[in-house]
Amino acid sequence: MEFSGAKLALFLGADLLVIRRDNRPDIPFPDHLDLPGGGREMGESPEACVLRETAEEVGLQLDPAELIWSRNYVRRSGRHWLFAAHRPAGTARDVRFGDEGQGWMMMSPEAFMRHPMTVPFFPSQLQDYLDTT
Question: pTM for this one?
Answer without folding.
Answer: 0.94
